[in-house]
Each structure stands twice: as C-alpha cells, then as structure tokens.
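Entry type: protein chain
Record version: 2
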Amino acid sequence: MNFSINAINQAGDLKTTKTGCLAIGIYENKKLSAVAKTLDQHGEITLAIQSGDITGKAGSTLLLRNPTKLAAERLLLVGLGKENDTNERDLKKALEAMSNTLSTLGTEDAVIALPMGSAKKLRVDQIIRHCVLAVHDKNYRSDTLKSKKEPDVLGVKNIAFAVNKQQSAQAENALRNATALAKGVELAKNLGNLPGNICTPSFLAETAQDIASAYQMEIEVLERKQIEALKMGSFLSVAKGSDEAPRFIVLKYLAGKAKEAPIVLVGKGITFDSGGISLKPGANMDEMKYDMCGAASVLGTIQAVAEIGLQLNLVVIIPACENLPSGRANKPGDVITTMAGQTVEILNTDAEGRLVLCDALTYAERLKPAVVIDVATLTGACVVALGKHNSGLFTRHDDAHDQLAEELLAAGKATGDAAWRMPIEEVYQEQLKSNFADMANIGGPPAGSITAACFLERFTKKYVWAHLDIAGTAWNSGATKGATGRPVPLLTEFLIRRARMQAKRK
C-alpha cells in the first residue's frame, strides 16, 4: 500500500482532481462538511442525504458513481458522526468503514479529503494515523504458514491525503509517523500469530538481532549460563520446565544525548504458556502462544521509533522462555530466589509472568532509567475487570508516577489504544504474604490483576515505573482470532511526545 500527501490551494481544486475515488465527509442531521458543500454544486450529495441513502452516522458510507462535473470516477461519502463532536471512536469507525469500501473498488487509487483541522477534535495527524492503520489492518494477512495463500485484497493500492498547502508539512510528518507505526503494529501481529513451535525464545532473539542490524542498534542476548551468572533464579525457575533454552534480550536504540537516561520497555516473552504443573484447561490453550505479546509489542515499538528516527534513548528488555510441565518444572510450594535476593513461594505455576518480569525489572536498575514500563499479558483477572477494550495501567501514587500515568493515558486516548488506571495500594500487598518466603506469587482470586502488579512493584523501588496488563487487548478470539498489535500505538505515541518534550528542554 502506498500513501502520499496531495497539497491543494482550496477545496475547489478537488473538482479537477483525477482519481478513481474521492472520499469526503458528511455529518449526522444531514449536514455537509465544507468540502462536501463545495463539491455539491449540482445537489447530488444533498439529494443522497435527503433520500435517506446515508445517515451521516460514524461508519456509514455511500458510493456515488460518475459524479457530475467532477474529475473523480467515484465519490465516496463517509459518515463522521456529529459535527464538531467527532470523537476518537467515531473517527476510527468512519475510517475503518471507508477502508472496507476502498478495498472492494475496481480502481487502484483514491484521494481522501476529510475535514482535516476544520472540525473540533478532528486533526490532520488523527485522520492520517487512523486511516493508515485501518488500511493496513484491512490488508493484513496471517496466511504465511498456509500451503495455499489467501487471495490478495482487491481495490485501492495508492491513497493520497488532500490537505491545504499550509498543512502539508504537518501532514508529511504525520504520514511518516503513521507508516512507521503501522509497520511496528504489523511486526507485533506477525510475532503474536506465529505458533509456539516457530516463535521460540531463540526466534524472538533472532528477530531482535534482525532489528538491531537493520537500524544499527546495540544488542545483547544472554543465554542460560550468563543468566545464571546474574542470579536470575526466578526467571530460570520458569524456563527449566522446557527443553527450549531461555534467552534474555537487551536491545538498545541510542539516538538521544550520550548521558541522557533511557526509557526502558520490558516485554513479557513467554512464547508458550501451558500453566506448568498448574496446568491450564485444554480449551483455547492454543491461544497461549499469545503470552509473548508483551515482547512482540515492545519490539514493534522500538522498530517504529527507529523508523521515525526519534531523538531519544530507548532500551527494550525481553525475558523469553516457555512455561511447560515436566520433571524439572516448578511445583506448587517451591521457594525460589530472585535476582534481587527476595524469595518467592510459588503457589501457582501459572502465575509465571511475574516470575520472569521481576528479574528483568531488577536488571533494569543498572540502566539508570528515566522510566520503566513493563508490558505483559499478565492476568485473566484484568480481562474480567476491563474486558477487551482497555489495557490495565498500574503505577504508584505520587507526583512522578501520576505524571507518567497521565502521559500514558493521554497517548492511549490519542491513538484509540486505550488504557485505564487501576489502583496499587499497600493494603493489597497483604494478600501476598507467605509463611515460608518473603512473598507468595499469587494473592488469591480477589483483585488478581492488582496483586500481580503489587508483586512487580516490589522490584521497582529505585525508579519511576508503570505496568501495562494487556491480557484483554493483545489478541482477539473467535472468528477474528489474531494478535491486535496493541499497545504499540500507545507506546509509540508516548515516546513521540517524550521526544518532543526532551527537544523543548534542550
């Protein structure tokens, strides 16, 4: 798919724009956008609206062929919802519907002329980002392992965004960022959708090495003996149940100042999670290949950051292993020692994500980070609490952590990759008490996602930290089963804004 920017002097220039399809916006209550009004000299658009052929609700579309006195072969009306009140959700609906229609047309090129910047809350970067992501999602295929590939999506292959000339520089920047983001999301999807017999810890390490080579990053991949030397007893206790060797991946993108503290992303990389001795039910266990979506998302994010060329220092850490039952596997009641020296009583071997993450979070201390954000498909309890719409966001409650939480929530809102802040309070730590170790690895059914975050919080006292539980948002089940690529949009937007803030301080 090819995207470009088409700078125009005024909306009237679109009358002579030659294209297979020109997409314009309309609103509810039979209201036309400014572009639609300009192109409606012969009343065709007004007639279509008044006849009830399109309502203007977000996600509604209507295709008009051979519009009078226009050079475009087709005119696609796209419902944007209420005028001056189009929100992120409405915009996504509209652009997804538009992308679906464009994929069915018998033409290869289209021009998008939605009201960029003229309507409240409807910005150039929003429209371009959501459109690029929607088109990439529509064209995404997960058939790489099929002997017979699915047919290619027909329709539009070249899309130009029509913007006023004064918006062209902003639009070019937005398009560059959106294209990089789409590639990062695609990488996260591809990794998540691969089966566990292909996407092993070694495969994740090789993928990270490919990214390092392509973008001139520093990388270190630690194997079992090196991990043992670091005394990562918690991480290794999970890995020992599998014949697949663990890998501890540290990938560094250093485009900021030499002494500038890095932002650290830690991604859970359990490439298959059977639950270990505390074996999961058989139904839908195939979806436990998605338990490395935290790792996939931080790899997608660092690739997107490199594609954009952000001026900051970013480090990705991935503890990667499998969680399987065997004669060597952790047993309920075992006590293990973490890299931090704290001991953990393992009451449930299916609460393994926190066991690999705690050692990675301890390792992050040596990087002297500005902030650390871990990303993990950590708890089914988070799915119960928030469903498939919001990722769970956990931080301590003080000024520094409140600011980090606000930044992450704002980035999620801006990209439609939403998160919801959950509490971390000392009272929940009581549930992790153990008679035989410094802590237990579970706190019982009540507030399961919160006690999991509280477990991780114990290993993050020396820096500003946030935890994203993406168990509900990292993949879809059922007929649309597949990785979503979340939270790559949230994280990438967060880093874009951080880079902008750092540039202002220089």
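Comment: The chain is about 35% helix and 20% strand.
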